[in-house]
Amino acid sequence: MELYSDIKKVQQMVSNLHQQGETIGFVPTMGYLHEGHERLIQRARQENDYVILSIFVNPLQFGENEDLDHYPRDEKHDRAIAERNGVDMIFFPTVDTMYPNALSVEMTVTRRADVLCGRSRPGHFEGVVTVLAKLFNICRPTRAYFGMKDAQQIAVVDALIEDYNFPVKLVPVPTVREQDGLAKSSRNVNLTDKEREEAPAIQEALQKGREMVQQGIKNPLTIKNEIRKFLESKTHGKIDYIELLSYPKLQDVHHIEGQVILATAVYYEKARLIDNVVFDADGQLAYG
Amino acid sequence: MELYSDIKKVQQMVSNLHQQGETIGFVPTMGYLHEGHERLIQRARQENDYVILSIFVNPLQFGENEDLDHYPRDEKHDRAIAERNGVDMIFFPTVDTMYPNALSVEMTVTRRADVLCGRSRPGHFEGVVTVLAKLFNICRPTRAYFGMKDAQQIAVVDALIEDYNFPVKLVPVPTVREQDGLAKSSRNVNLTDKEREEAPAIQEALQKGREMVQQGIKNPLTIKNEIRKFLESKTHGKIDYIELLSYPKLQDVHHIEGQVILATAVYYEKARLIDNVVFDADGQLAYG
Q1: Residues of each annotated binding site of B for beta-alanine
Q2: Residue B17's closest chain A neighbor by CA?
Q3: Distance CA B31, CA B117 (A)
Q4: Contacts of A48 (CB under 8 A, 6+ apart)
Q5: Chain Cα centroid distance, residue B79
Q6: From CA A267, how far away is CA A259, in angstroms rounded?
Q7: What is the pLDDT along chain A (288 residues), one digit of tens a residue?
Q8: Subunit contact B111:A102, Cβ cutoff 8 A
Q9: How many angstroms separate the CA atoms of A285 and A107, rounded?
Q10: Of A197, B76, B184, B217, which one has the fewest beta carbons inside 10 Å?
Q11: Helix, strand or coil for residue B219?
């Protein structure tokens, strides 16, 4: 496994790989790798000749109230996980390497950003697309891997790739779950025993919504109301939002016709949990 | 010479070229090719294995008062010029191909845009960087060629490439001139005989400014005043601006230390002419 922190060296390396006709799988992360990241790496490993993992805590995607300085880091642990899963190169640039000067050309996300979790994170997706445009140009991957847990991020990255014709295939990877269906998250350890017991209701509720669509109910409001009732009966968590939007455009729908996302966020005492399902007008799951 | 209008096909073609280790020279244009474009193509031809010329009248870079609909087009003439100068591929997409949907991720040029000609063309450089980011991702060139006549455009493209790490080398090509030094321009035919006789004073004035720097004068104000006096004595044209800025950052300078641009725009009755010189603190020309 090779370690790179210099942009030009990565570009030279990647140029050689292209000349050899090798496919490149790319997993962009902020480090502190967990099982979700591992799943991304494994998928990249299966589908590509060469796998690049980037580790960069991107200051641009942190809001004013978000704690950049205390973002957890564990380089040694990350390296071990990367090595174990067959990563060929880790790219871990410094902030000065990635942002040597103030940007003269800035990116704004004018669609897909102001819904779901994006509503409460102004500027977050600007930071995400800026760093990804850079990383795509540095690593020039054949495929880039993102977890469906953050479905909105995938929708925004999809827009970046489509709008600017980046020659990279976006691969959404299904959310890793516990036996009882709860989406894996580093935040789950902050749940009380009782909360942990109740939390699988989140995924149950979303699947219930999907089943309603399978049964022919196409009115988003009916579905959201039903889910709200179900969640309120099954858990003491406070519902932040329940949204049903077109996917990946993330626009309001009044009647379910094409692909949609059903997503929710629930506050517990010391953790806010999110989850989603993406499916079509027949209730067929879009990803795994 | 091959003709392409489909984005995916160009990307496939270009991917093959990369695999063969071929270098790609890229000349982006809006068509209606003239001698300045020819010079760019010739330089690209000299320095690369494969030369791509794009012809796309980009609606995004036209202002509200700028006449997109009447922008001149002459496909047959353009093809002949391309063929004659050894272009390997012309990429000529439609507007629908380039902008199938409203953009979700938009680019804003926050530096280098609001000076020189950019001052009177709000939104122009946003359109330029947007289409170039797309064209770079479609054609993935080794080198991209731009004329120094539009030095501000080069400065903005330089920012785009640096800020987003596009793996492309920007090649500024010196302005093509008449025997008497007047920068070639399709607008020169709109000059009266008397105006045409006076117009070489523009380049003379700029060279005079450069000579002042060679002689040790480092105060931009002194230089600009001298040039203004010279121009006013030599031509009846109305001076739009005379600016001396750092290059390529295009910031005000109070004392000439690094590389600078000295640029002017002059109104004649039916034509507005622009010209510039870029040089260092010793008055040494930067290009050509």
Answers
A1: 61
A2: A19
A3: 21
A4: A22, A23, A24, A25, A142, A143
A5: 21
A6: 27
A7: 999 999 999 999 999 999 999 999 999 999 999 999 999 999 999 999 999 999 999 999 998 877 788 888 899 999 999 999 999 999 999 999 999 999 999 999 999 998 998 888 889 999 999 999 999 999 999 999 999 999 999 999 999 999 999 999 999 999 999 999 999 888 888 999 999 999 999 999 999 999 999 999 999 999 999 999 999 999 999 999 999 999 999 999 999 999 999 999 999 999 999 999 999 999 999 975
A8: yes
A9: 32
A10: B76
A11: coil
- Is the distance from CB of B155 to CB of B247 less than 8 angstroms? yes
Residue type, A78: D
- In chain B, the domains with their CATH numbers are 2-173 (3.40.50.620), 186-279 (3.30.1300.10)
How far apart are the C-alpha atoms of A113 and B72, rounded to whole Å? 39
What distance in Å separates the CA atoms of residue A225 and residue A248, rounded to the nearest whole number? 23
Tokens of B177: 């001139």
CA angle B166, B137, A128 (to 5 degrees): 65
Residue showing tokens 């800020």: B163
Q: Within the 17-76 window of chain B, which residues sit less than 8 Å (CB to CB) from chain A?
A: 18-21
What one-character-per-residue DSSP string does A31-100 give?
SS--HHHHHHHHHHHHH-SEEEEEE---GGG--TTS-STT----HHHHHHHHHHTT-SEEE---HHHH-S
A164 and chain B: CB distance < 8 Å anywhere?
Answer: yes
Helix and strand numbers, DSSP H then E, in chain A: 9, 10
CA distance A63 to chain B (A): 19
**Which run of H or E residues covers position B277?**
strand B272-279
Place of tokens 């060629």: B145
Spatial separation of the C-alpha atoms in residues B66 and B45, rounded to whole Å: 33
Residues of B whose CB is below 8 A from A23: none
What angle, rounded to 10 degrees, do the helices at B35-47 and B75-84 form? 40
Option in B7, B109, B134 nearest A104 (CB): B109
* Interface predicted TM-score of the whole assembly (ipTM), two decimals: 0.93
B124 catalytically annotated:
no
Which amino acid, B194? Answer: K
| Burial classification of residue B199, based on how many CB atoms lie within 10 Å of its CB (0-12 exposed, 13-18 middle, 19 or more buried) | buried
